[in-house]
Amino acid sequence: MNGDELADNVLRYAFRQLLGNNGYVHVVDVPESFDHVGFLKELGEFQPTPTGTLVGDVKPEQDMDDVNHGQNRGGLQPHTEGYEFRGTPPRYLALWCVKPAEGRGGETTMLDGNRVLAEFDASERQHFLDTVYQWRSTEGLARRGVVPTAEHPVLEERDGELILRYSTSYLEIPEGDELARRLIDRGGALYEENHIAIRYEKRDLVVWDNWRMLHSRNAFEDPQRHLKRVQIAG
User: Fold this and answer.
1) Longest dimension (CA), the chain
2) Is 90 exceeded by the pLDDT of residue 62?
3) Residue 194: helix, strand or coil by DSSP?
4) Which residues sit opposite 109 in a β-bridge?
5) Do residues 69 and 138 make contact, with C-beta atoms less than 8 angstroms apart?
6) Which helix (H) or strand (E) holds 25?
7) Which of 72, 118, 128, 226 has the fewest CB atoms within 10 Å around its CB?
């Protein structure tokens, strides 16, 4: 603030307020001494990523550019994390930048899922609470031998809070379920029109509420782009 580092208690208070109010926080001008892992552990227990690591690397893998996968240079489609796994999805996701992408692209994009749900009335939202859907996983995970599928409703109440699951491509829409089709189509249109795009500098930290926010990524060219990633139970 005004060129000075924030005091720890001020930083933590501001961070919690912003995360609760807006669904995400982008922390910039991060000093070299900042402990990303230690700070994020205050939010809750880390959950393993699909590759089994607690702190994962997000960087391009050479044989993945032809499929939909987080470990390539392609753009991603809007989704929440963990829809294809059984159990409760991670409450928070966090990325921090080891090396930003040179040139165009590589931004993390997000949209508040509440904007999508506002398109549906109470009875329609009840349909998403009551109806169990089949969720598939990406071609990229399948190439690595991870082929999860799960059955969940789109909306789930947990300890008085609402969990939204969303995937543009991997929600199996039953024949005749026009509400589910409208959810995907309208969600995609709202995302295209209203998403925010976060451009990284080195050490930047982005944290979002995965029960609420849809996220994606813009395509990029730089093979050296490198982020770190954690999933947090909350």
Assistant:
1) 58
2) no
3) helix
4) 197, 216
5) yes
6) strand 24-27
7) 118
